[in-house]
Write a structure and sequence with these properties.
CATH architecture: Beta Barrel
Number of helices: 0
Radius of gyration: 12 Å
Low-confidence stretches: none
Number of domains: 1
Strand content: over 45%
CATH topology: Lipocalin
Helix content: under 10%
CATH superfamily: Quinohemoprotein amine dehydrogenase alpha subunit, domain 2
Mean pLDDT: 94
Number of strands: 10
Amino acid sequence: MSFDGTWNITLNSPVGAQKMTFVAITAGSTISGPITAADGTVTEISNGKVNGSVATWDIAVTKPMAITLGITAKLEGDTIFGTAKLGMFGNAKFEGTRG
Protein backbone atom coordinates (compact mmCIF):
# COMPACT_ATOMS: atom_id res chain seq x y z
CA MET A 1 0.00 0.00 0.00
CA SER A 2 1.20 3.49 -0.81
CA PHE A 3 0.90 6.81 1.01
CA ASP A 4 -0.33 8.36 -2.26
CA GLY A 5 -3.74 9.98 -2.03
CA THR A 6 -5.76 12.48 -0.05
CA TRP A 7 -5.77 12.10 3.74
CA ASN A 8 -8.18 13.70 6.21
CA ILE A 9 -6.10 14.10 9.37
CA THR A 10 -6.79 15.26 12.93
CA LEU A 11 -3.80 16.39 15.01
CA ASN A 12 -4.53 16.43 18.75
CA SER A 13 -2.42 19.46 19.69
CA PRO A 14 -2.14 21.32 23.02
CA VAL A 15 -4.48 23.98 21.59
CA GLY A 16 -7.11 21.42 20.60
CA ALA A 17 -7.89 19.19 17.65
CA GLN A 18 -6.51 20.56 14.38
CA LYS A 19 -8.12 19.20 11.20
CA MET A 20 -6.22 19.19 7.92
CA THR A 21 -6.10 17.56 4.51
CA PHE A 22 -2.83 16.15 3.14
CA VAL A 23 -2.42 15.28 -0.55
CA ALA A 24 0.49 12.82 -0.47
CA ILE A 25 2.63 12.17 -3.53
CA THR A 26 5.39 9.56 -3.36
CA ALA A 27 8.27 9.05 -5.76
CA GLY A 28 10.62 6.26 -4.75
CA SER A 29 11.71 6.96 -1.18
CA THR A 30 10.41 10.54 -1.07
CA ILE A 31 7.02 11.97 -0.12
CA SER A 32 5.77 15.47 -0.89
CA GLY A 33 2.54 17.38 -1.18
CA PRO A 34 0.43 20.16 0.27
CA ILE A 35 -1.32 20.17 3.63
CA THR A 36 -4.40 22.37 3.88
CA ALA A 37 -5.49 23.51 7.36
CA ALA A 38 -9.14 24.01 8.32
CA ASP A 39 -8.72 27.78 7.83
CA GLY A 40 -7.59 27.24 4.22
CA THR A 41 -3.87 27.83 4.82
CA VAL A 42 -1.82 25.64 2.47
CA THR A 43 1.70 24.50 3.36
CA GLU A 44 4.01 22.22 1.38
CA ILE A 45 5.73 19.55 3.45
CA SER A 46 9.54 19.37 3.37
CA ASN A 47 12.21 16.72 4.00
CA GLY A 48 9.73 13.93 3.17
CA LYS A 49 11.05 10.37 3.29
CA VAL A 50 9.33 6.98 2.99
CA ASN A 51 10.61 3.63 4.22
CA GLY A 52 7.99 0.93 3.69
CA SER A 53 4.93 1.75 5.79
CA VAL A 54 6.65 4.61 7.68
CA ALA A 55 7.10 8.18 6.45
CA THR A 56 8.66 11.29 7.97
CA TRP A 57 8.35 14.93 6.98
CA ASP A 58 8.39 18.48 8.34
CA ILE A 59 5.66 21.12 8.27
CA ALA A 60 6.36 24.82 8.86
CA VAL A 61 3.29 26.12 10.74
CA THR A 62 2.57 29.83 11.25
CA LYS A 63 -0.65 29.70 13.32
CA PRO A 64 -1.22 29.95 16.22
CA MET A 65 2.57 30.49 16.30
CA ALA A 66 5.56 29.85 14.04
CA ILE A 67 6.95 26.35 14.63
CA THR A 68 8.22 23.44 12.52
CA LEU A 69 6.48 20.15 13.22
CA GLY A 70 8.45 16.93 12.75
CA ILE A 71 6.03 14.22 11.61
CA THR A 72 6.44 10.46 11.85
CA ALA A 73 3.57 8.60 10.19
CA LYS A 74 2.65 4.94 9.87
CA LEU A 75 0.37 3.56 7.20
CA GLU A 76 -2.06 0.67 7.76
CA GLY A 77 -4.39 0.22 4.78
CA ASP A 78 -6.49 3.37 4.50
CA THR A 79 -5.48 4.62 7.96
CA ILE A 80 -2.55 6.88 8.80
CA PHE A 81 -1.40 7.67 12.34
CA GLY A 82 1.63 8.82 14.26
CA THR A 83 3.21 11.65 16.16
CA ALA A 84 4.13 15.26 15.54
CA LYS A 85 7.14 16.72 17.37
CA LEU A 86 6.05 20.16 18.58
CA GLY A 87 9.45 21.54 19.54
CA MET A 88 9.50 22.62 23.20
CA PHE A 89 5.80 21.69 23.48
CA GLY A 90 6.45 17.94 23.32
CA ASN A 91 4.64 15.53 21.01
CA ALA A 92 1.08 15.25 19.76
CA LYS A 93 -0.66 12.26 18.22
CA PHE A 94 -2.54 12.36 14.94
CA GLU A 95 -4.68 10.00 12.92
CA GLY A 96 -6.54 10.09 9.67
CA THR A 97 -8.18 8.20 6.85
CA ARG A 98 -7.79 8.19 3.11
CA GLY A 99 -10.50 10.42 1.67
